[in-house]
Each structure stands twice: as C-alpha cells, then as structure tokens.
Amino acid sequence: MANGQKTWCIANPLSHDSALAANIEYACSLLDCRWIQPDGPCFEPDTLLQHASYVMNMYYQAYGRHLSDCDFKNTGLVSLTDPSYGNCTFESGGALAEEEPSETWCVAKPGTSDELLQQDIDFACNHVDCSPTHVGGACFYPTNLINHASYAMNLCYQTTDRKNSSCDFRGTGLLVSVDPSYGNCSY
C-alpha cells in the first residue's frame, strides 16, 4: 500500500461461524472488546461477522497492520475502504509499509442491514450471473445475505474494469486486497 494508505481488517463473509467465534475469543483475550458488548456502539447488528470484523480490526491495528496481522487462519481480509457505519468507528493508523495491491475485490460491508444487502443482490444479479449463489452452486454456502451479496457485488465490480466507484453500492461495498475465495467458491 502506498505510504499513508489507511487499511482495515474485516472478516471474510465466507467465514464459518465457528471461525468467527474463535477470532472474537482470541482478539478479546488480548484487547478490550467493550465496543461489541450490548451497550457498545458496535454491538448492532448483533452478528458474529460484524463483531469479528470489529475485533479483528482492533487486533490488526494494535499489532502493526501487516497482512499477517489480518490473516486469522485465512478468515481476514484487508480492506482499502473504511468499514465504519453509524456510531461504530473502525480505527486505522494508515502507513502500511507494504506494496500497493495488484488485485482488488469487492465485498459487502459488515454491519450492512439485510434490507440493503438484498437490494445489492437484486441490483447486481440484474447485471451479472448469480447462479453460483443458488442451491447447488459453488458459492451457496454459507447461506447468508452477506455472502451472496459479496459474491454478486464482486462480480459486478470485476466486470466493470474494477473501478472504485463500481464497489460503492450506496456505501455498502468495501474494496479488499485479499482474495475472498473459499473452497470451490471463486471470486
């Protein structure tokens, strides 16, 4: 990344709940996780993906902002777009000393409402083939809106010459520098 480029760590929308729970437990054993507690500004939406993304970013920021600090056994993605929403602020220190990413992907922002994720799916699937997210498709699992929206949003992004504006989706998309593909689900 260019000197001064701010980056964040988020959980891959394809991550299994057990991995997300383990990431939360690990990061919270080392850091103060009160922001994802019921009275904290990052508690809602109360999902493992959102909570894991927040604490994984805390860890990533605290331990040096290197790609390895966001790996979490291949469940982390380095975001080039701020995943903050509402009163939930994802901190970033910037100045990552690594090179500019050669490839980027688009995924849905953790914390996006189901209603907006469905709108993203509807929009994207009117422009690209979303059959891999249907029953029997390589990207059907995990069967949740954020996974399916991420796949569809990325396919739109990739087919529009990877323009930053093609990953905006009314503020619900994030550019990431790590391939979110998992198993047979290829982004």
UniProtKB/TrEMBL annotation:
Its membrane topology: Lipid-anchor; GPI-anchor
Transmembrane residue ranges: none
GO cellular component annotations of the record: plasma membrane; plasmodesma; side of membrane
Domain called X8: residue spans: 7-90, 104-187
InterPro entries linked to this entry: X8, X8_dom_prot
Pfam families noted in UniProt: X8
Domain of life: Eukaryota
Keyword terms of this UniProt record: Glycoprotein, GPI-anchor, Lipoprotein, Membrane, Signal
Subcellular localization: Cell membrane
Stored PANTHER family: BETA-1,3 GLUCANASE, GLUCAN ENDO-1,3-BETA-GLUCOSIDASE 13-LIKE ISOFORM X1
This protein's name: X8 domain-containing protein
Organism: Corchorus capsularis (Jute)
